């Protein structure tokens, strides 16, 4: 999940692409996360400095490639990777405790099909991934920026979607999920108007949760409170 807050305030964090869709959350790694990071980052970590990667070289094989933007504490990504060992997964997360937590999951489960970026997803998209290299991009529960004056900071915007489109192969899937109805409506509006994408469901319809997307503790809690969850699956058509 990409929901991130900053205990020091919610002033925007800027990058070369302008206002980011998140603010860095303050927090330290636990001892276990820190040790996992120290042990496993050299093997599983990817950096901006490596430049444009060849996924086949990174993973040592030619396999379906999944990209999750904002994996939170990493459990869902680890669940997906464990359930589909024949596929490869790249996770992006700026929150270092989350990176450490995912690396610990990778160690504990003996996963070999996961790699991790600990930088802004915009840099991964622009500088690190070749065009038409990814089979599925997943953005689960991004920060909704629910105040109207903050809506412009939402990650899912027309320009972002088009940049994602170029990284997907034709036929690849962009999978979005949110538990904020207003954001779901915003996502549907953006995706429906986006060139080169078609809804996998009927026009304007949300998708049932695919089996490959794990139900998070966060999501289960929301369901108990009566909150809805909306999934959108759009296919790149050209």
- CATH topology type: Rossmann fold
Determine Rg (CA atoms, Å): 17 Å
Architecture, according to CATH? 3-Layer(aba) Sandwich
Count of folded domains = 1
Q: Note the beta-strand portion.
A: 15-25%
**CATH level-1 class:** Alpha Beta
Mean pLDDT reading: 90
Give me the CATH superfamily: Vaccinia Virus protein VP39
The low-confidence parts are 2-16
- Widest sheet: strand order? 3-6-5-4-7-8-10-9
Question: N- to C-terminal separation?
Answer: 28 Å
Tell me the series of helices and strands, N- to C-terminal.
Answer: EEHEHEHEHEHEHEHEHE
- Number of DSSP-assigned strands: 10
Helix amount? 25-40%
- Largest sheet composition: 8 strands, mixed
Multimeric state? single chain
- The outline comes out as globular
Account of the 3D structure:
The protein is α/β, with parallel strands linked by helices and 238 residues long. The protein has 8 helices and 10 strands. A hairpin with a 2-residue loop joins strand 1 (14-15) and strand 2. Helix 3 (75-83) packs parallel to helix 4 (96-109). The protein is globular. The two termini are 28 Å apart. It catalyses: guanosine(46) in tRNA + S-adenosyl-L-methionine = N(7)-methylguanosine(46) in tRNA + S-adenosyl-L-homocysteine. It comes from Marinobacter profundi. Substrate binds at residues 147, 179, 216-219.
